[in-house]
Amino acid sequence: MITATDHPFAQRLAQLPDSRLLRADQPTGAPLMCMPEVEEQTEHYLAIEHGDSADRGMLTGALGWGIGLTCIFTGFSAYLDRDTEWVIYSLVISLAAFIFPFVWEVLRPIPLPILLNRRTRELYFEQEGDIYHTPWDGIAAATYAYGTVGPYTAGMRHAALEALLHRYGHPQEQVVINLSSPTGKSLEMQLGFWEYLRAYMDNGPWFDEQGQPSDSPEFNQSLLAVRKRRGHWTRLQWRDIKEQYQANGGRNFLSGSDFVLLVGSLFLAPLNAIQNVTYAVAKRRSRSQWPQMIRERLRGDGPTSRLVDLEQGQA
Asked: What pLDDT does 21 receive?
């Protein structure tokens, strides 16, 4: 229920019963929950995947593995027929199917992640070359549930988690961003993610189930496992099969669907590996796109002044 009339989102969400206004210093009571969008968590900052960056590397993986596999069979067949020319052709085509999309996807700008900086206690967001930010202390955020109905699907429920930021040097220009993708999320999930972010900023970088400081990153790493990075499907499927084996005492534990999923994940493992490599290179290269004032504040020995402090000094 909305009670704070001074919140920037209060009027906007006044007619939505399933909504909560959020502040950094006010707990919601929801259990901590991490979202797959969290791509990196360090001692100094937390990065949340944004935009279509999650699909980066998919083209390289599909072409590199799909065409490469075909060329392997073609080249092997040509080798058996002692057709050296076709062996060379197959090798060149398979390399081209990987190199050209790899270079294109790596060089193409990737959407920068949303950054939460623990040292300066602020949030950064980049859009079309402009930097938007807000101090964490006093941040305006809200979560609300809504439904959608499609021509080929039944009604679906979603929940958004939004925060208000302003453009650096232009406080009058504001933008509302999603801290987590709303698709398929519930209000409880988004509240749990908000508590995760609060625990990171206030008690991080590592904390326990109650959000209290911890010397071990074990709990955080277990939550970050929900990301299910590409290429982990084989490991996850094999883990499920072993659990079923133990639960059934080694009897009637393997179903047809489990076998198909395991074989399918093994077949797609090279595709996922290529996609992961492409994504990692593109992400590492994209970090240099942040302005110097952001990059230096992500370092452990960088300045601790906030961007809002710089704005006030310039004014």
From this structure: 93
